[in-house]
Amino acid sequence: QMEMLRRAAWGRLAEVVGAPVLDFDLRMRRLGVGRLAEADATLLPDETRAVYQAYADGVNAWLKSRDGVAADELALLLAPEPEPWRIAHSLAWNRMMSLRLVNNWGSELMRLRLAERLSPKQLADLWPDYPASGPVSLPEISPSALAAAAKFAELAGPDDGSNAWVIAGERTASGAPLLANDPHLGLTTPAVWHLASIRAPGLRLAGAGAPGVPAIVLGHNGHVAWGLTNAGTDTSDLYVEQLDPKDPGRYLTPDGYAPLELRRETVRVRFQGDREIVIRSTRHGPLISDEDASAPGGGVLALAHGGLLPGERSAETLYRINRARAWPDILAALKLTRGPQQNVFYAGPDGVGMALGGDLPIRRRGDGYMPADGASTDGDWARLADVSAMPQTFRPQDGWIANANNKIAGDDFPLWLGREWAYPGRMAEIAARLSHLKQADLDAMAALQYDLTSPIARNLLEPMLSLLDRDALDARGRTLVAALEDWDLKTEMYATEPLVFYAWLRETIRLVFQDELGDAFPEWFGLRAEPLEHVLAERQVWCDDVRAAPVETCAEMATRAFAAALAWLEERYGDDPANWRWKKAHKARFRHISFGFFPVVNKIFDSVVPTPGGQETINRAAFRAGDEAAPFVQRHGPGLRAIYDLADLERSRFVIAPGQSGRLFSGNRSSLMERWRDAEYLTLEPPAAPASVLTLEPAS
Question: Which of 7, 192, 255, 265 has its CA 20 to 30 A from that of 183?
Answer without folding.
Answer: 7
